[in-house]
Specification:
It contains 3 helices and no strands. The protein has helices at about 1-35, 40-75, 85-95.
């Protein structure tokens, strides 16, 4: 009977050690899984970097368009109007063309 009790004690003691090892293995596996999957993972970081590059390109395009619009606004405002800008606006709004021009209408 004493031999059986010692064996049971050894089994319980061994289970305690294996439980701790299993717990740590599961904990490491949990964090490793979430390092590669999920909202804050490595792949999500790569997706954010790609999105950042796309947004930087879009910001550059918007900046260029804004500068163009500012220069057109500067040419049309103030006390002196740029003659080329005035001619362009008149031709666009009234539909005037030169005889040697080809008109392409896009909608």
């Amino acid at each position: 009977m004493i031999r059986i009790m010692k064996r049971i004690g050894n089994i319980i003691h061994g289970m305690g050690r294996s439980w701790q090892a299993g717990f740590w293995m599961l904990l490491v596996a949990y964090f490793a899984f979430h390092a590669f999957n999920g909202a804050n993972s490595i792949s999500a970081l790569k997706n954010l970097q790609v999105q950042e590059q796309e947004l930087l390109a879009l910001a550059q395009a918007v900046r260029t368009e804004r500068l163009m619009m500012e220069s057109r606004t500067r040419a049309m405002s103030g006390t002196k109007v740029d003659p080329d800008m005035l001619e362009q606006q008149v031709r666009v709004r009234l539909g005037f063309t030169h005889p040697d021009e080809v008109i392409v209408i896009t909608n």
